[in-house]
Amino acid sequence: MNNILNTPVNIYGREVKNRIVFHPMEGCDGKRNGAIDELTRRRYLRFAKSGAGIIWFEATAVCAEGRANPRQLYINEETFDSYKELVAEIRETAISECGFAPLIIVQLTHSGRFSKPNGTPEPIVAYRNSHWEIGKENQPYTVVTDDYCDSIADKYAFAAKLAEEAGFDGIDVKCCHGYLFNEFLSAYDREGRYGGSLENRMRLYLNCVDSVRNTVKNAFVTTRLNACDCFPYPYGYGVNDKNEIDLSETKIIINELKNRGVELINLTLGNPYLIPHFNRPCINAPEDGKIGMERIYAVTKEITEAFPEISFIMSGLSFEGENALDYAAQAVENGVTAFAGFGRMTFAYPDFYRDYLKNGKLEKSKVCLKCSKCTELMRNASVAGCPVRDSETYMPYYRRDVLKK
Question: What pLDDT does 2 receive?
């Protein structure tokens, strides 16, 4: 066993006890008003017992119209107490079970073209993108005005204020996977203050980063950022006219974040709705998962080398199954990443890191199977979890909402 994963890292003047990060994995199991519900609480208390250094709380909406589903978490004055209670309970449980409290980060989001606040598509978009809209041309698209964009920074500031008061250590201004801020990065032909030049295309994102920074007093500001969209040019950013990954603009964006005091970035790429195997390599995909892992590794390595003063988090690691932590340890040892991020594995096997520390290995019978059944649940408007490894809780939902459709 390589113990490098169990070494601490200092960020924002705080010590993270180890290199393990639980990614923001949406459960779609909040209450209709956006408050924490029982399945949400169950999931995070399982995470609290994991021994992870960072628990990255899932996508939490900053406004009603930007919710991805009717049960997406949404922090507001009405739901505030449920967040404060859960954050305190996560810390208490972690200290009791593991001897320390993890850093807890909340991901604030506007779902943009994936908004379904009432259960049916109500896409709010930066521009019309024919590549993204194949088969969805007739949805009721709303192209946001510059005035609407101007108003979003205040929504983020208000949500961040509540999140800090609820006890979150960090605030993630989400900019990935095709959601609103990420989509604006490819708004090459949009007119006005938020389109065209890179300065304009990143304006909304950076305005909201600034609004959060200027609002919170003790919480730090971070982000989950798409390094590249991996769509054919010009339908996404981070790809050149030869359809090769080109991180030139990504590095400009990261430099702007560095200048704003951002010390931790959760890297990802692709789009889970259209090319899910790019950010979470899996079985039964259009390409071998090893190719996806090589792509993630190469992108993370290039960006880490360009910004050695920033701590980056690598994604996609659940694909490696029972070898995932050894693979992650090698990536940290090689300087490719500072932290190892896990998503699907946390649904299937939330105590995987404790098992690793205790036994020096993961149990093959518990690891994520890369089958994407958790995603199938989400896509079928159900709650998200692992119907294989956590079958007593989630298989009934899978039978009802997936198999019977």
Answer: 54
